[in-house]
Design brief:
single chain, 2 helices, globular, 6-stranded antiparallel sheet
């Protein structure tokens, strides 16, 4: 699922089945490397870090990524949810870090 946001941001959700998944933290640690490599393979330096924030009423780990692509800043925030063998990856892409965070926060407000 993907939604283009009015300010040029993008919100996307990807759900995948992970039969060999032992714990969410190990999965997220792998994803930090995968996300950085995705940009670095295109010759774009990217910084990625893990953080924690409130999401849907719980403290959850997220990845925050910053890259500069063709002179334009790109910020990406990804929150992960695990249910059984399924992982939901919720991505927010924006031109600044605050906008990416606010897009993720909006999902929590929908639940309320």
């Amino acid at each position: 699922m993907r939604a283009d946001i009015e300010n040029g941001g993008i919100l996307a959700v990807m759900i995948r089945k992970e039969d060999m998944l032992k714990d969410l933290d190990s999965y997220i640690n792998r994803q930090v490397v995968v996300l950085k490599d995705k940009y670095n393979m295109d010759g774009i330096y990217a910084e990625a870090k893990k953080g924690e924030a409130e999401f849907l009423g719980e403290t959850r780990t997220y990845i925050s990524l910053h890259a500069n692509k063709y002179g334009q800043d790109l910020y990406e925030r990804v929150v992960y949810l695990k249910v059984g063998n399924y992982i939901a990856e919720i991505y927010a892409f924006a031109g600044d870090e605050l906008s990416a965070k606010q897009m993720i926060d909006t999902i929590s407000k929908i639940e309320e």
